[in-house]
Amino acid sequence: MSSPSKIIDAHARIVFDSRGNETIEIEIMTAKGLGVAAAPAGKSRGMKEVVPYPFGGVRESIKIFEKDIRRRLIGLDASEQESIDLMLKEIDGTDRFEKIGGNLAYVISLATALAASASLGKPLYEFLNPSASTIPLPLGNVLGGGKHAGKGAPDIQEILTVPLNPRTPFDAIMANVLVHKELGKILQKKLPNFPLGKGDEGAYAPNICIRNALESVVEAADRVSEMTSIKLGVGIDVAASSLWDEKIGCYIYENEGKQMTRDEHINYILSLIREFNLIYVEDPVEEHDFEGFKEILKAVPDVLVCADDLVVTNAKLIKKAGEIEAANAVIIKPNQVGTLTDTWNACKVAQGLGMITVASHRSGETPEGHLAHIAVGFGCKLIKSGVVGGERVAKVNELLRIGEKLGSKLRMATLGGG
Ligand code: 2PG
Ligand code: MG
Description:
Layout: E1 7-16, E2 22-30, E3 34-38, H1 57-73, H2 81-92, H3 102-119, H4 124-128, E4 134-135, E5 137-144, E6 158-163, H5 169-190, H6 210-228, E7 232-237, E8 244-245, E9 250-253, E10 258-260, H7 262-275, E11 280-282, H8 290-299, E12 304-307, H9 315-323, E13 329-332, H10 334-337, H11 340-352, E14 356-360, H12 370-377, E15 382-384, H13 390-406, E16 411-412
Helix pairs in contact: 2-3, 5-6, 9-11, 12-13
Residues 237, 239, 282-283, 308, 331 line the site of magnesium ion.
């Protein structure tokens, strides 16, 4: 009898992401299951990420799929993830998926895993890791700016909250939703002319300075802590590469009307961390400055100093960051590296070095919940996937379904102890 997870057909199509941009979707069919996955898209992308599409864009990736990949997938066993991912690397032949596109590699890898798990009658998280049982804490972007919003919004990209002691996945998600609602009321009062506009990830994007923005989020988080007895932490994604001007060697804060040298910038970020009791800071300095990360972590060792553009889900770069103590947390965005096998390796290296792994959405998303399975399967203690908006809620709602499946095995992640 042939394997239930043997691939019998595969299709590629163009669909639209949450920003209305074209993206690639792949369908993998086996004798007993179907896997469908579409690629997200970053706007503040790291320079060291894999290349999302070859020259010619989504259409070129589709042509390559039809010509060089589709037939080679048929007949393979979808449950053999590593060999399929290896085949994709061999077909591409470059280090950064320049020929076929990292997004094509990622959706083939993910759709294959989904088809395999469906064929075997298992949810994806369980197919990825049969002993997985921990639900990550949701880290939610509630107020933002930078490249994810228009002119006038804060220069730093995201202000986020995270429930620290929720009893259930439902309580955890609800806490962030309540912060978003309270924040809307606070902003409306502070800025009567603000029409409650939002950026790409559903976070409010008001015309407000950074300190006032942080003050507002801290107030909203405090209100929700009081209402629910759930302790909330506040954090930021500076996305500092977006502020860095290589030519003049300064950070430019356009909305604040400030220009800072590297050292001034580091001191500024440290002052925000201290003044607002931040528990999380992502990409505090630009993507080549391992030493700057190190200085910040040394100054605030109890804060999660999280590397995104610095390490781009790349196991080698994560190893470097962990070993020199440049970061104690790391963003895991599967399409930054291209395959699930490489994503898993990145998580293992990070966790082996005691770093907290943060499974993350992209600012352009598709309305699928697969990231929740990846986060649970790969042992991520945090999931950064937004608070409101269909494509954001899809991920946290999936955590609720996974939680039900886990039943009495379910554990909520905690941030203490690495
Ligand atoms: C980030 C992400 C997601 P983008 O910087 O962490 O919030 O942004 O997907 O635009 O790279
Ligand atoms: Mg980031």
